[in-house]
Amino acid sequence: MLNNSFIILDGGMGQELVKRAKHKLTPLWSADVLRDHPDLVAEVHQDFIQAGADVITLSSYAATPTRLAKYNRQDEFEALQKAAINAAKQACDDMGLSTLIAGSLPPLPGSYRPSERLGSQLSQQEYQQILEQQYKHVDLFLCETMASIEEACISTSVAMKSGLPVWTAFTVNEKDGSFLRSGELIVKAAQAVLAEGASALLVNCSTPETTTQALSELAPHVKTMGAYANGFLTVEPYQGHATVDVLKSRQEINPHTYAEFAQEWLSKGAKILGGCCEIGPEHIEKIRNLRQNDHYEEIIKNY
Predict the structure, then answer these.
(1) What CATH number has the domain spanning 7-300?
(2) Which of these, 74, 137, 127, lies nearest to 103 by C-alpha position?
(3) Cβ–Cβ < 8 Å for 206, 180
(4) Which of 169, 188, 214, 299 could bond 203 through an S-S bridge, CB–CB 3.0 to 4.6 Å?
């Protein structure tokens, strides 16, 4: 029998903003929307909360010093971090619910390219910069879309300095969920990150099918695990200076089919469920319908 007391994350903020903002797509498009339309960011947060999210994540994924510096916008770092914090707080205040806010420690140069990660010392310094902006305003940290063991361990170790719960999420190979995008075994990654102190391990921004496979690999080794998959056909075209319009969505990953995957993840022991790119509020609402009670506060205290 499934234990349907689980925590619900929000969905894919970035792609939802693309659909709503009608903003010119650039390699820093989500940072552009955060700068130019912060009320829209708050609105999307609110819609995810209304759909059932217990935890929303700061919309600061693209606002890392390295990514901003690539386009000579490093002087916007603090302002963008503050804008993300303010949008999340506004959404929670306006909804009047006990929604938690997760800080975001993303891959620093960009997603899905583990070979381009920064050196160890630079990574630590940059994650520390992000941590210092966020830790007073969030309830936990989410180290997400980690594509290599080194990247995951550095972000997790820095997040642990906050004294807050740290959840680390891996992105896996599109053909075999046993491996990270770096080619390293996910079981080895899990062992390394747990040793750094992470209290939950998740699989994110991967296909639903490989997410299921990855959870099967993690289940014997991880007490608290979760999943928030994407709805892309493939992320392979998203390299270098590409913009998100090169990525195509899978039309069959509708709210109903996504909830079916979520049900399977529950059966494998997942306790944290949500969505990544192309997964909107309507998908999260379907996940909410799988839950039998609202006592998530009791669960989260143990994470």
Answers:
(1) 3.20.20.330
(2) 137
(3) no
(4) 214
